[in-house]
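Revision sheet: structure tokens.
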Amino acid sequence: MTSAAAVDPRLADYLAELTDQRRMSPHTVANYCRDLKKLLTAAGEMPLADLQVYHVRRFVAQLHGQGLAGRSLARLLSAWRGFFRWLGERGMLKANPCDGIRPPKSPRLLPKALSVDETARLLEPVEDDDPVQSTRDLAMFELFYSSGLRLAELVALDCDVLDSVMNDGEIRVLGKRSKLRLVPVGSKAREALAAWAALRPELARPDEKALFVGARGARISPRMVESRLARRAIQLGLPTHVHPHMLRHSFASHVLQSSGDLRAVQEMLGHASIASTQVYTHLDFQHLAKVYDAAHPRAKAK
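Predicted:
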């Protein structure tokens, strides 16, 4: 719990409810806490019950002037609105001062995805000083691309998932808001996971449950996964910085290009809304547009 909760005990109660009753992840609760701390800082000595719409509008304008983008402000306003609603339900507030306030719009940035050829190159075997860690890395990255996992989902996996992976070609994943989903695992990923499972005892502590472990034998950290993937991309000469979420984007884009089944991609990614998945249709259109520009007689520059 950060100092923001210590400043206002109501905030501590709200964050506790998000954790214990709504079952939000520690990462999400930390984001809420950080955003609500900005609210307390902006309000200063003014009681929250006295805040009006024009006060909140001014706070948002000030933060925008300090460089906060539209998407960040939208998330921030959502956190503020939820907290004020919670206060109102308990009779601590007469009206929600965030009602009717919209953040400034930001241009929608498309997620970056690797091409099929770039992905194939990234998943080639590499020479490494530590063959055990190299085998682990290939298993992690094959699984990322095979199943479209989030980074937090991958590092949270335990060894008990291996049975369903090897026997049924699928993996059960605990996603956002503690929602379980079942996703397929391709043959290349299964091969890489089998190779890693054979070598894992050489690295893992005897009592460690985590599927993927770091050099000290404990569950691997998200930062280490990011670092190993970026290192691998450099080793293999990829022309762009590669991060774990890019493999998730690549999975979604390539499956959509091949199948055209937006609902299936939504289900495999674990998106609550189809709108989150529709961004990949834009990537698919970009791919088609490039093919058109290269192949259509009327599209070629003279």
